Request: fold
Amino acid sequence: MPTREHSAGHDVTPALVVDGVSHAFGDKTVLDNVSLTVPHASFSVLLGLNGAGKSTLFSLVTRLYDNVSGDIRIQGHDVRRSPSLALQQLGVVFQSRTLDSDLTLSQNLLYHAALHGIPPREARRRAIEALETVQLTERGGDRVRNLSGGQARRVEIARSLLHRPNLLLLDEPTVGLDIGSRESVLEIVRSLVTQRGLGVLWATHLIDEISSSDNIVLLHKGRILYTGSVAGMLEAAEVSDLRSAFRRLTGTDEEMAAA
Amino acid sequence: MSVDSLGTARPSAAPVEATQRLGLGAYIVCFRGIVWREVLRFLHQRERFLSALVRPLVWLFIFAAGFRQVLGISIIPPYESYVLYEVFVTPGLVGMIQLFNAMQSSLSMVYDRETGAMRTLLVSPFPRSYLLISKLVGGVAVSLLQVYVFLGIAYFWEIEPPLIGYVTVLPALILAGLMLGSLALFMSSVIRQLENFAGVMNFVIFPMFFASSALYPLWRVKESSPLLYEICRINPFTHAVELIRFALYGQIDWSSLAVVVGCTIVFLGAAIFAYNPSKGLIARRGGPGG
Reply:
């Protein structure tokens, strides 16, 4: 049990550290010396337009392929050197739908638990727990194809929690959801941050998903333009609202999503 | 998840679950989970089950019945007497079931990779090669289901190999399934787009199937075209079919066995290399979605 007292959390290993990572496909540089930190109990927004390099960064953190320069550490474990330990601490919700629509919610969750080596009995217990967390307790026996988009997303969140990770990555999780579903997904994830102390990295291009207490990581054309608090970002851009701050810092005028 | 005293616990505000090395038990759980998912998915997709079964049965009931007057089969091993064309073609159709199943699971992998299900698999903390091999075995398990149901129906069509053949054919089916599955797995890592896959079906499945001993004995092919004969002989699918044919009659075709094992090792090695996060093709191409 964690009993030792500590101050502002400086002695705590952050959930995610990305340090000086660059990545290129052929001649095309997609990430240029990217560094960011996601502390525990923080909701960090990775803000960027499509093509900013968010997906590549996610591919590197989830180790679809290795970073060739810099370091990525999840809960202190280097993704390249000790991938198994790092991936055990990582929960992911991908942008595209990744549930088996022919199978039931429970079957999907049990499959995922198996991927993390969780024995069946324990897995069933955790699956029920996870469905409670996302308020779908009654639906365990339903086929995924009978769920709405927002419900399916919530199942994916439940799934990402089964192995009890310290870091949760979500890649544009609200794309294609109606307003009500978007809000409920955001609310669930925010409560994971406040109640369980998870470090969350939430990639989006939608400014209205940001709340004033969030950490912002502004990624534009493969480079980090700003990291820090919302207030700090407004100050840096010398404007009063985030939308203008985004435009000012990235030098884009019209492109920003209208949402 | 019982042992947590590996020195990884650290004081923290967050609910840090002790990270641990994955034990043998966890490996087994993971393997079972992946194989079970493949089987479940197959059983839930009725149309896939049906079409997997109807395809070889159409060949058996219609094509073979019409063809048997055209093609007489002489006595060649492993058969001890003249056999009907239906009997001859059955191992070839079994091979076809496995070929289609492997390519279909490869198709699902291309699709999976695009939708992200493959990525869900690949963020598992187990070694990537282990995950891929587990997935491969899942595909083989599905093909075994299909083959035995097919053989069961064929039995009532007077294709009656010795009963012991149903047992001895099992290792041959597993080997053939592994070979075709690892070929498909490798292909899935090379192909990026679904529409390209349709082309591969034409350029891989049909040539492999027709330029083999599945439909006609090779000595017949030799009579008409020595070149085609040589092509058939180097086609790994020919050896898969022959391995199955002999095994179904309780015999071992050693040269086919060697070819199938060798090809499996080569294809599987290529697939694991292609999916390797630092060296593989995925890393070079940027993977799904850029």
Residues 85-115 of chain B form the longest helix (31 residues). The mean pLDDT of chain B is 84. Chain B touches chain A through 53 residues (CB under 8 Å).
